[in-house]
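During the reporting period the student researcher (J.K.) took over the structure-prediction task from the postdoctoral fellow and processed the backlog of single-chain submissions. One of the processed entries is reproduced below for the supervisory committee.
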Amino acid sequence: MSISKIPVATLGVPRIGRRRELKFALESYWSGKLPVADLLDAAKKLRAASWTEQRDRGVTKIPSNDFSLYDHVLDIAVMVGAIPETYGWSGGDVALDTYFAMARGSHGTADHQGCSHANHGHGVPALEMTKWFDTNYHYMVPELSANQAFTLTSTKPLDEFLEAKALDIHTRPVILGPVTFLKLAKCNGTTFDRMALLPKLLPVYGALLRKLKQAGADWVQIDEPCLVLDLDRTERNAVELAYQHFATDIPDLKIMLATYFGALGDNLDLALGLPVAGLHIDLVRAPHQLEPVARLARHDQVLSLGLIDGRNVWRADLPAVLDRIKPSIAGWPLNRIEIASSCSFLHVPIDLELETALDPDLKPWLAFAAQKMDELVVLGRALSEGRSAVAEELHASAEAVASRASSSKVHSPLVEGRVSAIDESMMHRQVAFAERQSQQAAKLGLPRFPTTTIGSFPQTPEVRKARASHARGELSYVDYETFLKKETETAIRWQEEIGLDVLVHGEFERNDMVQYFGEQLSGFAFTKHAWVQSYGSRYVRPPIIFGDVARPHPMTVAWWQYAQSLTDKRVKGMLTGPVTILNWSFVRDDLARSQVCRQIALAIRDEVVDLEAAGAAMIQIDEAALREGLPLRQSEWKTYLDWAVECFRLASTGVNDATQIHTHMCYSEFNDIIDAIAAMDADVISIETSRSKMELLDAFKTYKYPNEIGPGVYDIHSPRVPKVAEMTELLQLARERLVDAQIWINPDCGLKTRKWEEVRPALVNMVEAARQLRAAM
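J.K. obtained the following structure tokens:
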């Protein structure tokens, strides 16, 4: 690939490895099978491969320090010494097991070989985890105290810059900005102004930046995505203070200030007034901001144009991109322009060429990280050398876009007609919750504080092996079904044995809560190797919604019927909601997301009606991702919440009053969307609250939420087995915020990723906590 004369930048790339090498190395290390030296060597090889590929593809602004063993926000917290006392750190180097204890919690077992400070971080819960802005990536939430001290505990950005330099690759180090870091953190204990800690934090950042400058770094990319959020005056002042400090403290270091995930909006003047050498803007999420930024930016400043989508998988219409930007940058000298991705490629799969089984009509419409690098280089060459230099590439781009637009695989008149026929009557239950509640109580006969789980049970190596063998044709469908039925029966019998009140079938037949449904719906495509990181070593392969969505046949009814036939206790029907399917997929960009969601909602509605007809008295429609789709600017929330709630109701309200509708939501701050949650009108909502120690329930206390709630008392994202006393303590906190008649008892989330040896004692303890609570009434 020829190199563009205009700089081409990626801002960051996937760190997981083409074959998920990082996942396997991490999990081997955590299990005690891999020495720390081998883990670090595997990470080093991944970094080298990434830098080399970018260089070979023609990327000229290659990032370093975009790699992380777990999470880049956690990396910064550890690097600046923001380590809560819980983890036993007393200064100096931070042990790797302390780092992982902050990420995953710890049993309190023996240290891994090769790690120092063996007692640090053992037997403790993990930090809270939540979504990175409005993406599907999770970050670890730093905990800061009012008297927080900061110190430079490591030089990871410097070390990786020098590592690349030794390979003769000059990189641009990437660092999360100090203001975004503080804004994303939480107060540990008493609430205080986190921005008041900035004067203590800036010298630590400054010390690192000086080391980078001395090592030969001419540019550093500092990410401040908080600049696309609603900022108050204190936060704006903090941004000004930080970058004035850097300009004074390290005047010769060039800073590329990176913003992404939205428009600068009312922070435009603030960003343009900062003393930085470059400014990156997201022109995929916010193409309209190019004109004012190009018009108002200083002409001694490099403008980085985020033109290639870092969050979706569709091939760009490169001629259209060039046409769109040409008027705005006409007056800019080429040496003041940089072509870049909209944000880091962390959020997209690595290489489309790994997908050898994709529909040959669909594949040319797609671009993963590797192909997006090529697109960046084509744009750079078109601007610096003229379109004729890349005429072939531009023609191929336009041809692929035209093929997609006219494909009969994309458009279905039947689906379009059904969506247009939706009316208001399809989005309401027949009576209000209070009346439904009495009917459901009479029908279900559950005790006070009923216990249940969220749906999935561990996907053991045996389950995964059987699924893979069946997929390869080595295990017949009959044998595979027999295996799954045995797993299901074992799970049902065990739930009966420990005394759970409402059972689940375990979902052993399901590969993923979205993929399982998407594979049975029209308009979806699936990949074999298109993994993206959700958190830590948890990777997912999001479905690709390329066309109109419909349900050709029932998807879950037979498995629910089988499970219910095994027990006299109630078994929940388990579905994934339309908003979550939408938000956890790569969604087509040629139709409004709200319209795509309505199509999915109609498909799920059909399944809900069929489950009820088969005898299901309780149906859970998980909307784990409802809040994460919330726009970053509050002024845009209402539009999203209106159609998101409408779609949930469209999916859930086709049942009789005595049928109990459950839903589940993952890590979410509920205070600011409590009205929308109430408007969903689910009979029972279960939520993740254990890591926040029930703080997330404050919204329900203030609002006086009328329906029933299952606050999670067991953090399933950690290998720890919580004690009965821990759970009863959390339940007492829940009772301070809720009425007893509202409370269900359940884990935070599904148990798919845990091991049975963790799940069994944890759920036994959970049932015992419920018994103790009832006995104390």
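The committee noted the following: Confidence is low (pLDDT under 50) at residues 110-122.
J.K. will present the remaining backlog at the next meeting.
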